Amino acid sequence: MIYYLLYPLHVHPALSFLNVLRYVPFRMLAATMTAMLLTFGLYPWFIRTLQSKQIGQVVRDDGPASHLSKAGTPTMGGSLILLALVAATLLWADPRNTMLWLVAAITVLYGGIGYVDDAAKIRKKHSGGLAGRYKLLLQFAIALGVCGYLWYGKGLPADWHALRDRLSVPFVAFEKHPISMPSWLYVLFASFVIVGTSNAVNLTDGLDGLAIGPVMINAGTYLVLAYLAGLTLFGNDIARYLDIPSIASASELSIYCGAMIGAGVGFLWYNTYPAQVFMGDVGSLALGGGLGSLAVVTKNELLSLLLGGIFVIEAVSVMGQVFAFKVFGKRIFLMAPIHHHFEKKGWAEPKIIVRFWIISIMLAIASLSTLKLR
Fold it and tell me: Where are the beta strands (DSSP E) in 218-282?
C-alpha cells in the first residue's frame, strides 16, 4: 500500500528519494523489518492477554512425559504471526499483484481453519479439536478454488498463462524438457501440494521452535526463487538464463517471503526453548498453506519435496506409523511424528530442534543448487 500511494510522488524534486520504493529488494527488507518489529513489540502484551484469558496449550495424554509441564502455556500465538505477515505484506507490496492476493488469501483462510481448531481444543480441554475430515474438506475446498482460478481465472499475468500447465522438475532444464499436465490434473495436484504442505507443517509443530525454523528457511529460499523468477537485469531475463520458469509478477512475492521471515524471527524469540508461547494450528496451518501456495505460483511444486524435506519426513512418519499399525498391528516408531520418536529415545529437546534446523538448511542449499545444476 505504501508503494501504491507514495511511489507516484517521486516525480516531485523534493520527494525524489521515494524512487527507492520501485526496488523490490528495498521493499522486501522493509517488510521483513516491519513484521519483525511488530512481533517483537506486541508479543509481550499478546502473551499476557492469552494468559489472562486462560488460552493455554492442551497436551496429549499419550505424549512424552516431559511435555506435561507445557500444559497451560499460552497458545494461538500464530494469530500475531499472521497479523504481522499480512500487515507487512500489504504495507510494502504492490496491491495490484494478483498472485500476491491469492497467496495471502490461502494464508488467511487456512489461519481461520486453524483458529477454529484451536478454539475447539481449548473449549473441550482436549487435544482433539476440529475433526480431521472437516479440516481436510475445508482446506481442499479453498485450495481447489484458488488453483482453479489460477488455471481458469481472468486478470492473471500473461506469462503465467503461458506456463500454467508446465511442471518444473529439479535439476532438469525447464525450457528444454517441458512436462505438461491436463488442466484438471494440475488443479488437483497443485491443491494437494498446498494442503499437504499445510498439514505437514502442522505435524512438525510439536517442539519449541521446531516448526518455525524450517518455515523461515523455506521462506528464505522461496524469496530467492521468486525474486529471480521475475528479475530482469540489464535487459536480460535472468530466469531464462537460469532456465527456470520466468514469471515477472513472482518477484513481488519475495516481499511476502520477507514478511514471513520477519514475523518468524519475532515469534521465535518467545517460542525458543523453553517456549513462552506456542503458535497453535492458527499459525502452523496458515504458514504451511502459504509455503505450499508459494511453491505453486513460482512453479516449484516438485522442488518443495526437497526444500520442505523436514515437513515431508514428519508427515510420512505419521502415515507410515498409522499404516503399519492398522495393517500389521505394529509400530515403526516409538511415537509419531518422528521428532517424538527421538524424544522417546532420550534425545534432549534442544538437540532435536537444532539438528532438524541443520537438515533444513542443508536441504535449502541443495534446492538452490538446482538453479545451476541442470
Answer: 232-233, 236-237
φ/ψ of 247, rounded to 5, equals: -135, 105
CB contact at 8 A, 293 and 107: yes
CB 178 within 8 A of CB 245: no
Q: How confident is the model at residue 25 (pLDDT cuts 50, 70, 90)?
A: very high
- Provide the 3-class DSSP secondary structure of residue 321: helix
- For the segment 132-153, what is each residue's pLDDT rounded down to a tens digit? 889 999 999 999 999 999 988 8
Give the contacts of 71 (CB within 8 A, at least 6 positions apart): 56, 57, 58, 59
Side chain identity at residue 213, one-letter code? G
From first CA to last CA, the distance across the chain in angstroms is 38
Cα 209 from Cα 206, distance rounded (Å): 9
CA 207/CA 273 separation, integer angstroms: 8
> What residue spans define the domains of the chain?
2-58+68-303
Alpha carbon distances (Å) from 60 to 121, 129, 210, 269, 279: 11, 12, 17, 25, 16
DSSP calls for 10-34: GGSGGGGGGGGGG-HHHHHHHHHHH
Q: How far is CA 238 from CA 223, 235, 300, 366, 367, in A?
A: 15, 9, 17, 20, 18
Kindly state the helix (H) or strand (E) to which residue 72 belongs, with its residue range: none
Neighbouring C-beta atoms of residue 72, cutoff 10 Å: 13
Q: What is the DSSP string of 175-204?
A: TTS-EE--HHHHHHHHHHHHHHHHHHHHHH
Q: Measure Cα distances from 202 to 93, 117, 199, 311 in Å.
A: 27, 12, 5, 9
Q: What is the pLDDT of residues 233-272, one digit of tens each?
A: 766 788 888 888 989 889 999 999 999 999 999 999 999 9
Cell 505484506 maps to which residue? 89
Q: Residue 19's CB: how many other CB atoms inside 10 A?
A: 12
CA-based Rg of the chain, rounded to a whole angstrom? 21
Q: Tell me the whole-structure pTM to 2 decimals.
A: 0.94
pLDDT, tens digit (0-9, with 9 covering 90-100), for 186-240: 999 999 999 999 999 999 998 999 999 999 999 999 999 999 998 887 667 888 8
